[in-house]
Amino acid sequence: MPPRSKGNGVAAFLGLGTRADDAEYESDERGGVMNASRRPDEWVRTTCGYCAVGCGMLVGVRDNKAVSVMGDPDHPVNRGRLCPKGLSEHHTLGADGRLTAPAIRSADGNQERATWGEAVDSVVGGFRGILREHGPDSVAVLSTGQLVTEEFYALGKLARLGFGLRHYDGNTTLCMSSAVSGYKASFGSDGPPGAYEDLETADCIMLVGANIADNHPLLAPRVMANDEATLIVVDPRVTKTATVADIHLAVRPRTDITLLNGMLKLLIDEDLVDHDYVAAHTEGFAELAAHVASYDLDRVAAECGVDGGAIRRATLAFGRAERAFIGWTMGVNHSVQGTQTVTLLNTLCLVTGNIGRAGAAPFSITGQCNAMGTREAGGTASLPGYRAWDSPADRAELGELWGIDPERLPAGRGRAYPDIIDGVLDGTIKGLWIIATNPPVSFPNRGRLERALANLDLLVVQDGFETPTTALADVVLPAAIWGEKDGTYTNAERRVSRVRRAVDPPGEALADFDIFLAMADALGVRDEIYPGWKEPEDAFAEWSRVSAGRLCDYSGITWERIDAAGGVQWPCPTGTEELGGSPRLYTDGVFPTPSGRARLLCVTAEPFSDAPNERFPFMLNTGRTVEHWHTRTKTGRVEILERLAPEGWVEINPADATRLGVHPGARVRMRSRRGLVEGVAVRVTATVREGEVFMPFHYDELCVNRLTIDEFDPVSREPNYKQSAVHIEAM
Amino acid sequence: MTLVSEAVTPEPGSSEAGTSQPVAFTPTRRRPVHGVTERGPDLLPLQAGEQYRFSFAMDACVGCHSCEVACAEQNDTPVDQAWRRVGELEGGEFPDTRRFSLSMACNHCVDPTCLSGCPSNAYEKLGNGIVAHHPDDCIGCQYCIWNCPYEVPVFNPIKKIVSKCDMCRPRIEEGQSPACVLACPTHAIGVEKVDVAAWRADHESADAPGLPPADITLSTTRISLPPDVPADTRPANEHRVRPEDPHWPLVVLTLLTQLSLGTVATTVVLEMTGATTAVSQGHGDGGLAGPAVGAFLAGFVALAASLLHLGRPSRALKALRNLRTSWLSREVALFSAFSVLSFGYAASLAASSWNGGALTSVLGVVAVLVGVAGVYASARLYLVPARPVWNSRRTPAAFFATAVSTGPLVALLCLDRTRVRPSAVAMLIVVAALGTIAQLGVQARLLAVVRSRQDHQHQGTAQLLDGELHGSFRGRIAVSVVGLCLLASAATVPLGGAAAGGRLATALVVIVLGELAGRYLFYVSVVPYRMADGFFGSR
């Protein structure tokens, strides 16, 4: 944006001497005629750093400044187009609020500038001291889905082998862990089986709790381009996505389980089951059929609050489809029954034989740009390469690959994110290293989380920007962000794409990769855990070797191949001929379970623990909006995105608004059993049901997570963000 | 620049089929977007009688706002001066609620009112249909913003001129699609050509919920609506009724020109009816020159104040360029002439002893006629369809009522009332009172009309006058009523005396204050037509 310099004196008053009137445009070979202020000297090919769609883009660079972006016309994911966050992503580079030097909290309580040497020593020395005194359970790491795979792989080794930690998890547990657990429960392994191109060839697409128009905008064109498919959207709200659906099933919150059971019963009753597939590749069908027998249409329609005819139409469209595709995101995952709901979606595809072929898949649309990278290579919920913590064989294999004693690898995954917070609160965990995530805004029940973070002996925060989390840190480590470092991201369809350094990090900020190397140096383990590593590509080479033979096999992928293909989908074992890798999994119907068969699991909906009552009469649903990313640490610094969505709001049905005596734009006070948020702008809209309200979660200032319940899926440990009882009053 | 291949669906009868490659994501779900070309409109050369235009498939837009960001990047527009905006619309009841997004930039109208109203000819309708704005000719008067029913032009407070979408003319001229078209992931925005005569005959698809009627300017953007748009579909920003800018220089301009006209007219009437008595020659008290000089000074201050309204006062003379179609040009010309004439009239009166001669009278009558025309032009420039509450006979009525309610009082206070026939003084007080009563009538009528009309613009003004501006509006009425009382009290004492003078002066001050408040409210309480916007608005 142009500087807002004020003119001065008489000349400006007369309107003279202000800036030149004519905007200047210049021609660029790639971008065509562009605003002169945006025309770069060179274009750097990279991948967007926001969501997991993984759009290819070109960053325009001039004088070490990112001046523009454009969609990569050759990238198979987005074919030249970008969403508004991507189109303005260069503004995040060079934005205000960057961390440019390490800082250490001094005795008087202020964060004071430090050298990298001092900062690394204080982290290594501090954590070592705590570990020595309190044992291996006393320090934990919370990372992210925002680093490059090479960094995740390096961090996993550093945490487990360098520091010897048991507890390491990431904010991916706040978004995709139910998908991971659900895939593991049904198929025996994580790994989304489908590809985006399936959206174009499916003849029935069912999106469950997935508002792709807002949250994965570049998937919307794929769906909209598919003229033949019946589009079913299951969502309690009339989302932007629901408005383009052929059938929108506006189910009451968490009655998705009932709906899916009802659909299964109807499929069985109508004999739309693929008996051959079920017999050959699944187990548990008889139990499933018995379990869903009581879910007749009238009951399901009544419980879901949806017209039975619509459920029937949707089910028949799904069952009769040659190729049916299910996509889901947070509406499913953000639930205490997230894992179970995911297995039901898998089951729906399995019983109709909709997996392992073009246009047919149960597909988790991942959230973060590289959540997949940490799932596969990071060593949080599983060991790198989807190896199981509790499998001695997997540990032994990895130990051999790494040249270490497998006994050094924990025999369990350790605490997941919410359990780390519990440990911090009860004093078990005294040292915490938070990397590129912002829990005060993103974690449920903020009041409790803040009490926890105040309870630490050493809080280390590594991030690109000043955030509410860095403000609490004892040691701040300034990191390079997207656009300032090299590596790879893996997107939701398992496509590995390159991320490139377009500009230098500001001040003394370092790539996370280099920070991990420095830590390993200080720990004296660099040669052991990072043998011969200098660049992220060295980590990639080792990781691809370590992944060989696993479901997520990267062994045939090199950075060169990624460049040649514009992105490669795993599995891509050495020798894979198709340049772009494998579009889908389970094409042979063999699953990585002991029996080789996929499991059909029975699920029953449980009642809410925080159901609305007289004191808290509204059901609060939370989510995202197209203009912002996560906790706005980046998008909040992009002027145009901020203008489009400058503050938090709550969506209230017109009937409720009348009852509350609030009009559009009024301010309300919202209270739950856990906290209070005041001054939320009211948007009166019939896109939410009476008795239900919706609030975006992006805002620190009007933080919906002061209200949300801190209740978690027992398997995936994913929070239940989507249903909390609240009280609302006009201010 | 070839970025994404798109299918060309040729216009019926055109011969450009198959000039571009087939598609990655073909256009949209069941609703193909016609005429979207890959390389831009150069693939569709214009025939006689055709122009380029935007198309917008509301049924294909998912409200991602990419077009807005792409536009801002391409044109380096500050965030509060977006050329393209995405409105949010909603109608129906849960769960059958419908929501739509309406992306709009300039509609490159067939009858662009920005252009016809522009006093400095800064706008040009190009041969290809693009309504282009020439910044070097812009004086920053912002009249185009009032004139455009979509409020497309935006004022840049740093450059002090307006700017607007030119359909990415620099790209179009190179055969490249506009930035918004290229950025739209669902191909909802396109550029195509239109037969102007056919469009004039049938332009139903220029209309959409939340938009003003397209025939005001004959907007060319073709909007394809989804089926069964609910009748109650409304923009999400409709609740954001905010007072507009008061335009203080214009408050001063209109008020003082009207006061000046009223004063000159009163002077001319006094002179021509012989209602005054001359005393000894050569006494040099100026006689009727007093009010004429006062009138001239008021008019002069008004013109000076109007310069402050311009972003670029140094270019003020350019305001005279468009006498042919712009009421603003005419206003400037007429008020300038009025100023010269009223100066001449005042000088002529001052040069003579008391009443001037026949030449003076002629000068006075001409000044009044030009002044009346000026105030008419001044009022006329607010009669724009884009601002329905202004676009009423109330506006000229209010303007002339101001002249009538203030002019006689100014004249009376600028001369020696003992030399005016008492009946004439009384008559002037009555006229001034009638002017204020008329003004109050206009205001009462305004309130009744805006309360009773159901459209958003009238309702919005009613909402402001009954809400946020309630106190100001009530105060404005009260002040005028007090003015009337003061006039009545002046009439109870000898009209030539000092007491009457004091009361008249107080009455004048109070009445002028009432008119000042009224004029302020005139500017701030209008609710313009504009394109739909988001919940938070865009400015």
Task: Describe the protein in words.
The complex is a heterodimer of chains A (731) and B (539). Chain A has 731 residues and is an alpha/beta fold. Chain A has a seven-stranded mixed beta sheet, sandwiched between helices. A six-stranded mixed barrel of chain A has the order 23-27-24-26-25-28. A five-stranded parallel beta sheet of chain A has the order 12-11-10-14-15. In chain A, a hairpin with a 5-residue loop joins strand 6 and strand 7. Chain A is globular, with a radius of gyration of 25 Å. The N terminus of chain B is likely disordered.
Order of helices and strands of chain B: EHEEHEEHEEHHEHEEHHHHHHHHH
Largest interface between protein chains, with number of residues from each side: A-B, 83 and 73 residues
Structural class of chain A: alpha/beta
Average pLDDT for all residues of chain A: 95
Rg over C-alpha atoms of chain B, rounded to the nearest angstrom: 28 Å
Q: Would you report the number of β strands of chain B?
A: 10
- State the major sheet of chain A: 7 strands, mixed
Query: Helical stretch count of chain A?
Result: 26
Kindly estimate the percentage of residues of chain A that lie in beta strands according to DSSP: 15-25%
Uncertain parts of chain B: 1-42, 279-285
- Order of the strands making up the biggest sheet of chain A: 7-6-18-17-16-8-9
Average pLDDT value of chain B? 88
What global shape of chain B is seen?
elongated
Q: What's the quaternary structure here?
A: heterodimer
Main sheet characteristics of chain B = 3 strands, mixed
Distance between the termini of chain A: 36 Å
Overall 3D form of chain A? globular
